[in-house]
Amino acid sequence: MTLRVLQPTPEHVRQCAEVLRAGQLVAMPTETVYGLAGRALDAAALARIFAAKDRPTFDPLIVHVLVEPGPRLPQLSGLVDLAQLGEVARARVEALTAAFWPGPLTLVLPKLA
Fold first, then answer.
1. pTM for this entry
2. What share of the chain is helix, strand, coil (3-state, %, to 5)?
């Protein structure tokens, strides 16, 4: 494991993205603490996070979503079980993401199995 402290330059962000794509972890500052980042859809990366934090696997993790231009709800389709959302819940998620993304917004939604 290589430990490096990087300044938030475009090149360093690109390097961190490559590390994450390779299934490795990146530590990064958040609003209040340092977080440990890994790809949410990569089972091996998730296992590394749980092991590094000595955290039980039943304890949920926070997932940050990179928002692309366009409709927001389809961007959640690989993470969220959209079939469990009723019509009202789906409309609320669409309205909230349209109003607040990109930007900080916490949603508690059913994950894909």
1. 0.70
2. 40, 10, 50
d(CA 46, CA 41): 8
Distance between the two ends of the chain, CA-based, in angstroms?
A: 31
80 DSSP 8-state letter: B
**Is-contact 68 57, C-beta < 8 A?**
no
Cis peptide before 8 (omega within 30 of 0): no
Q: What is the pLDDT of residues 23-63, one digit of tens each?
A: 999 998 877 888 899 998 899 999 999 999 999 998 888 88
CB 36 within 8 A of CB 47: no
Distance from C-alpha of 107 to C-alpha of 11, rounded to nearest angstrom: 31
Rg (CA), the chain: 16
